[in-house]
């Protein structure tokens, strides 16, 4: 049978899921009574937020041809989902909103598709909108792809206009899959997987060559594990069992395996153990780190099991155990961005019923030690395998004594911002405030520009996107790619309470920002620390140098309230006694940060 494998790529909200709905209707893959908006968005979370989080495959039949579509997310935090979808396809529909034009993420996903050597079909969506300008947007797309205006299709996914023409273009322009020559055996690449309570791990696969069927023995070449295939099938978009899945097809395999660690994204499923493994995928490196802790200590085992299952379904997610002096046992988790963190937190709470505390997000740093480093300065697990003089640190509590440090490096990213011409000044100011460096400016058209910067990841990880939307009145869009680590003047900012360091509140900052961040932390702590019988100094310090300070004033107890008269010396005597008591209390007193106070500072 003739097969075409393709995906839809676009910026956020340019209509990928709506176009996929129209495909399902035109090909009658889903009955009209079962149709709903964003049919391929299976999670409640996706429907509530109106975004696609997980890739979703579906098989459609159109004019005697099998069309395998993978619907992909649009947000930069889920770009790993997009890259895996591209690797399973031969072509991609590049969807561009005719009213908004080319955006930062449009350029980013197009570059990824071209790297995978895919055939691109350019499509303008939302041509029915009053603000749509297909001519202007078409010129932008021509400038990007080097194609002619005749190659660009125009559709309204909402109304169904021009959808049939897109499916015909998929049939005509996208090449059929070519099986790899591997002899008689069968091989399939795992591009996603989910854990089912009753059927074990279900692997989503693209069959590269050969045929796989239920009942046969199969091998996971990476994990070196054998299992019996319980069921094979394809997506309609629900699971639909069939006898076999063959070369070029996209489908699923029910493995029956209960241990989720065997089936990893990029794994090769083969009919024989002697076959050559497929190249798989490049492992993605997390960009943002945060601590996840159970609210109750007995929830630790439940959280660990939930993280194992989630990591199977989310290949960009990383986790490792850690202990915090204030919160107990938990996990240090790596994410691709703040939205990714937010989605993982909500999935853990909804799907796995975990009650969580999430600490403030940070990035990872590389610390290079001087020639002589005592073994006890840093945990061996934090050292790089290829260079034992360098440690990778994402938790500020692990930051070593500065006397042993030679240099500290932080991750930088290449930031692309698409905005209106009138917003160039505010955007440049905003990026410069985050220690960014201007690289280039390119006008996509008279009224829209593409700005390129290099900026530390720490500067954009927390609230940069919100600030960008405010500065550009909602018209700005951004995308970033990692550039690697660069050396900087980075220091550990201690928080001192009554002169003692509260290590759980420490953070790593650039020296130039230490005063502002320290002042903000001290002010926040002053609001949440309960008053005591003595004044509590709150200090932010770098080493021995205090850069910011606030004081929680002493609780004033009225010790003279019961006096009914008499000489003033009685009053003075009681006040002096109180003064001495407070002095003694301060010498032996301690500030105990309760969890509420701790979270008020650390929580995002």
| Poorly predicted residue ranges | none
Major beta sheet, specifics? 8 strands, antiparallel
Spatial order of the strands in the main sheet?
Answer: 11-10-16-7-8-15-12-13
Mean pLDDT: 85
Strand content: 25-35%
- The helix tally amounts to 14
Q: What does the radius of gyration come to? A: 29 Å
CATH superfamily of the largest domain: P-loop containing nucleotide triphosphate hydrolases
Q: Which term fits the overall shape? A: globular
Number of strands: 31
CATH architecture of the largest domain: 3-Layer(aba) Sandwich
Describe what this molecule looks like in 3D.
By secondary structure, this protein is an alpha+beta fold. It has 4 domains: 3-173, Rossmann fold, CATH 3.40.50; 187-270, Elongation Factor Tu (Ef-tu), domain 3 (Beta Barrel), CATH 2.40.30.10; 288-358, Alpha-Beta Plaits (2-Layer Sandwich); 492-602, Elongation factor 4, C-terminal domain (Alpha-Beta Plaits, 2-Layer Sandwich). The strands form 6 sheets. Strands 11-10-16-7-8-15-12-13 form an 8-stranded antiparallel sheet. Strand 7 (187-196) and strand 8 form a beta hairpin. The longest helix has 21 residues, at 568-588. The radius of gyration is 29 Å and the shape is globular. The chain starts with a strand and ends with a helix. The mean pLDDT is 85.
């Amino acid at each position: 049978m003739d097969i075409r494998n393709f995906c839809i790529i676009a910026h956020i909200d340019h209509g990928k899921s709506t176009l996929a709905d129209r495909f399902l209707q035109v090909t009658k893959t889903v009955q009209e009574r079962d149709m709903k908006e964003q049919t391929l968005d299976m999670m409640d979370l996706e429907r509530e937020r109106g975004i696609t989080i997980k890739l979703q495959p579906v098989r459609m039949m159109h004019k005697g041809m099998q069309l395998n579509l993978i619907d992909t997310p649009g947000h930069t935090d889920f770009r790993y989902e997009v890259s895996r979808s591209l690797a399973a396809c031969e072509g991609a529909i590049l969807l561009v909103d005719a009213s908004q034009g080319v955006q930062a993420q449009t350029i980013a996903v197009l570059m990824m598709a071209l790297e995978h050597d895919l055939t691109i079909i350019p499509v303008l969506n939302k041509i029915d909108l009053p603000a749509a300008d297909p001519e202007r947007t078409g010129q932008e797309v021509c400038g990007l792809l080097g194609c002619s205006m005749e190659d660009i299709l125009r559709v309204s996914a909402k109304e169904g206009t021009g959808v049939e023409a897109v499916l015909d273009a998929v049939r005509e322009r996208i090449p059929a899959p070519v099986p790899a020559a591997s002899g008689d055996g069968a091989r399939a690449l795992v591009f996603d997987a989910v854990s089912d309570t009753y059927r074990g791990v279900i692997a989503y696969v693209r069959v590269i060559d050969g045929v796989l069927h239920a009942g046969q023995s199969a091998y996971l070449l990476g994990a070196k594990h054998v299992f019996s295939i319980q069921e094979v099938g394809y997506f309609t978009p629900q699971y639909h069992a069939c006898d076999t899945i063959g070369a070029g097809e996209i489908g699923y395999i029910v493995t029956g395996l209960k241990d989720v660690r065997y089936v990893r994204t990029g794994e090769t499923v083969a009919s024989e153990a002697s076959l050559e493994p497929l190249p798989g995928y490049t492992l993605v490196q997390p960009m943002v780190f945060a601590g996840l802790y159970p609210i109750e200590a007995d929830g630790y085992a439940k959280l660990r099991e939930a993280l194992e299952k989630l990591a199977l379904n989310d290949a960009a997610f990383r986790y490792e155990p850690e202990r915090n002096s204030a919160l107990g046992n938990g996990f240090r988790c790596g994410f691709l961005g703040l939205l990714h963190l937010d989605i993982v937190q909500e999935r853990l709470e909804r799907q796995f019923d975990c009650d969580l505390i999430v600490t403030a997000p940070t990035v990872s740093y590389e610390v290079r030690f001087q020639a002589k480093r005592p073994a006890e300065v840093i945990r061996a697990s934090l050292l790089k395998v290829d260079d034992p003089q360098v440690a990778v640190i994402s938790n500020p509590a692990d930051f070593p004594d500065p006397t042993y440090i030679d240099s500290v490096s932080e991750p930088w990213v290449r930031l692309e911002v698409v905005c209106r011409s009138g917003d160039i000044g505010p955007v440049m100011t905003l990026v410069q405030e985050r220690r960014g460096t201007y690289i280039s400016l390119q006008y996509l058209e008279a009224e829209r520009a593409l700005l390129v910067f290099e900026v530390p990841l720490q500067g954009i990880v927390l609230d940069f996107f919100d600030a960008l939307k405010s500065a550009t009145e909602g018209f700005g869009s951004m995308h970033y790619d990692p550039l690697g680590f660069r050396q900087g003047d980075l220091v550990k900012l201690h928080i001192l309470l009554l002169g003692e360091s509260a290590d759980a509140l420490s953070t790593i900052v650039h020296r130039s920002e230490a005063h502002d961040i320290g002042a903000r932390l001290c002010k926040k702590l002053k609001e949440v620390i309960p008053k005591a019988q003595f004044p509590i100094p709150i200090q932010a310090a770098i080493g021995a140098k205090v850069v910011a300070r606030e004081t929680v004033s002493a609780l004033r107890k009225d010790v003279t309230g019961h006096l009914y008269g008499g000489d003033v010396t009685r009053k003075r005597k009681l006040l002096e006694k109180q003064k001495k008591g407070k002095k003694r209390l301060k010498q032996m007193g301690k500030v105990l940060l309760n969890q509420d106070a701790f979270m008020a500072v650390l929580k995002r």
